[in-house]
Amino acid sequence: MLLTAFIPLVLAALPSLAQDIVYDSAHNATTIVGTWSTGSKAVSTGAGFANPVNQSFIYPNTTGVSYSFTDDGFYEISRYRFNGNGSEPTCITGVMTWVHGTYQLIANGSIVMTPFGDGFQQVQDPCAAVSNFIQLYNETELYQSWRIFLDPVDGPKLHLFQFDGSPVAPQFQISATPNMLPTQSLINNTASDSGSLQSRSQTKRSGGERAWTPTGVGALLVSLVTVGAASLIL
Ligand SMILES: *[C@@H]1O[C@H](CO)[C@@H](O)[C@H](O)[C@H]1NC(C)=O
Ligand SMILES: *[C@@H]1O[C@H](CO)[C@@H](O)[C@H](O)[C@H]1NC(C)=O
Ligand SMILES: *[C@@H]1O[C@H](CO)[C@@H](O)[C@H](O)[C@H]1NC(C)=O
Ligand SMILES: *[C@@H]1O[C@H](CO)[C@@H](O)[C@H](O)[C@H]1NC(C)=O
Ligand SMILES: *[C@@H]1O[C@H](CO)[C@@H](O)[C@H](O)[C@H]1NC(C)=O
Ligand SMILES: *[C@@H]1O[C@H](CO)[C@@H](O)[C@H](O)[C@H]1NC(C)=O
Ligand SMILES: *[C@@H]1O[C@H](CO)[C@@H](O)[C@H](O)[C@H]1NC(C)=O
């Protein structure tokens, strides 16, 4: 695949990159502004994926990830992933994540995405004591590098490389204008009501009713269940 040939090139180029990255047609055939989505494009940022006010999700038909960027520094991510488990093949963890905030294109070619604090994720782990719950997701994410190529058939194609250099699946531009929820915190995130944010159990309406199909067993940039978070649910 083209992608695997591309990674060593990027890694090899990094040490010699003493000067700032140049954003030109060789680096990014178009700007990063817009909405991007992987594969079947079933996952998109914006109103069709998550409702932060009541921390609920609308489950897409297939897994995928979607990123949006505005021209004035805001981002949003929707992710729907499955995680395999080598030692327990039936223990497939599903994670839905929604988060938004502000991003910075750093001169060294990296991107830093800083969340507003109203992000959340639903974790479904059929083998865990609590198999289905929602928790706060507020991780600052570093992407080491990014490129946008022009695919002759599919048009602009965004490649993001995570903090450890592993690639996010290539994303196609599904809209040149970003399709996003309002670019501000959508909940009242005060100390007094933070209890509602931390974690709550989810018994009926959720992935438990859905068939589990491990389509995308890829790298997952989420912090999974911690003992602390799990104990809050009980
Ligand atoms: C590459 O991205 C930068 C930053 O978004 C943008 O200013 C520039 O116009 C882009 N280059 C092209 C060729 O679109
Ligand atoms: C959350 O709010 C949306 C929009 O008002 C509604 O459609 C959905 O049923 C709500 N979900 C839950 C779990 O309350
Ligand atoms: C999933 O697929 C069904 C049947 O094609 C369709 O009716 C439904 O709207 C899809 N759901 C989503 C969230 O796209
Ligand atoms: C795999 O499943 C086992 C048994 O539930 C669990 O102890 C282990 O942490 C899981 N590994 C991963 C990587 O999720
Ligand atoms: C979320 O992370 C941001 C950036 O680190 C921080 O400023 C904010 O206080 C955090 N919010 C919550 C609710 O943890
Ligand atoms: C770019 O700078 C950031 C912040 O200093 C750093 O975390 C990141 O690793 C750097 N990226 C590269 C490719 O060196
Ligand atoms: C936050 O609280 C203020 C004052 O209580 C209220 O006017 C506002 O609508 C709330 N915003 C959200 C997103 O709930």
TrEMBL record:
GO terms for molecular function: unfolded protein binding. It comes from Hermanssonia centrifuga. InterPro entries: Rot1. This is Uncharacterized protein. GO terms for cellular component: endoplasmic reticulum membrane. One of its GO terms (biological process) is 'de novo' protein folding. It holds the Pfam family Rot1.
